[in-house]
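Re: [ENG-882] Designed sequences occasionally contain unexpected residues at chain ends

Forwarding the minimal case from QA. C-alpha cells:
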C-alpha cells in the first residue's frame, strides 16, 4: 500500500512538468483567419469580378499568372504564379454562383517560400449587407510548415498569419476597387 501511495505522490509531483511535453507532441495546431470588407456594390457586381476561378490574376495584385485545367468545375486544379515566380497549386472544392461562394484548398505537400504553411483552405463568400452593398468575407485555415513545438520567428503561426493577412487584404482591397 505504501508503494502505491509513493507512486501516486510522485506522479502528482511530476505531472505538471510532463504536461507541456504531452500537449505539444501532436505538432502545430490549425490556425483560423477571417477577414471581411464592405463594398459599395451589389453581390452580383462583386461576383462578376471574382467568379472565374482563374480571374485571380486580374484582381489580386501579387498574382501575375493563373492556369486552370477545368475552369470553374469542382476538382479543377489551378496554378497561380506569384510575384517572384513561386507557384501554388490549388484545388477548387466548391463553386456556388447562386450563393456567391468559392471554396478551394492548397494541394498538400507544397513547400512555399512566400508563406510558411503546408496546408491552406479558403472560402470566399459575398453577401448582401442590407445597406445597398456587399460584405466580402475570406475565411481561411492553415497549418504552419514548421512541425516542432517551438518554431523560429519566420516559421511561426504569428508570422504565417501576418503574411496571409497581407495577402487576403491586398486581394480584397483590389476587389473592392474593381467592384465600386
Amino acid at each position: 500500500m505504501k508503494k502505491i501511495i509513493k507512486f501516486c505522490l510522485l506522479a502528482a509531483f511530476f505531472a505538471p512538468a510532463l504536461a507541456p511535453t504531452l500537449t505539444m507532441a501532436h505538432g502545430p495546431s490549425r490556425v483560423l483567419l477571417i477577414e471581411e470588407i464592405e463594398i459599395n456594390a451589389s453581390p452580383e457586381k462583386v461576383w462578376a469580378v471574382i467568379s472565374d476561378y482563374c480571374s485571380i490574376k486580374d484582381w489580386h495584385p501579387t498574382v501575375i499568372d493563373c492556369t486552370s485545367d477545368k475552369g470553374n468545375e469542382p476538382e479543377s486544379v489551378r496554378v497561380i504564379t506569384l510575384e517572384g515566380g513561386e507557384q501554388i497549386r490549388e484545388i477548387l472544392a466548391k463553386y456556388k454562383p447562386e450563393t456567391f461562394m468559392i471554396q478551394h484548398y492548397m494541394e498538400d505537400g507544397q513547400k512555399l517560400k512566400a508563406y510558411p504553411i503546408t496546408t491552406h483552405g479558403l472560402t470566399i463568400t459575398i453577401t448582401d449587407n442590407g445597406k445597398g452593398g456587399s460584405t466580402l468575407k475570406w475565411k481561411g485555415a492553415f497549418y504552419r510548415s514548421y512541425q516542432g513545438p517551438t518554431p523560429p520567428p519566420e516559421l511561426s503561426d504569428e508570422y504565417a498569419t501576418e503574411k496571409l493577412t497581407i495577402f487576403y487584404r491586398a486581394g480584397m482591397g483590389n476587389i473592392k476597387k474593381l467592384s465600386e
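QA comment: On inspection the terminal residues look reasonable. The beta strands are 31-39, 63-68, 77-82, 87-96, 101-106, 117-128, 134-144. Proposing we downgrade this to a documentation issue.
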